[in-house]
Amino acid sequence: MFRSVVAFAFFAAMLVASEMETTAQEGVACPVNELWSPCARACEPTCIKPQQCYAKCRADSPGGCRCQDGYVRNPNSDQCVLLGEC
Q: Which of 17, 62, 65, 72 is most solvent-facing, going by the fewest CB within 10 Å?
């Protein structure tokens, strides 16, 4: 029982910390077809590798703008485009 309480408390603390990080960055203006993410470009899909990986976000990640779902990063222009526009 104690382990369950500790696990729940840890999960709740991580959730609150994550929400605080996201809320702190709400004022960031990202380019077209991008949104702010605490993981920034970690495992972001690109024209060359369009499949998104699901690696864990590092705790020390600075955060930043990344492509919205359905878009990939064009390495030539550094813009988020539809895969057909690569």
A: 62
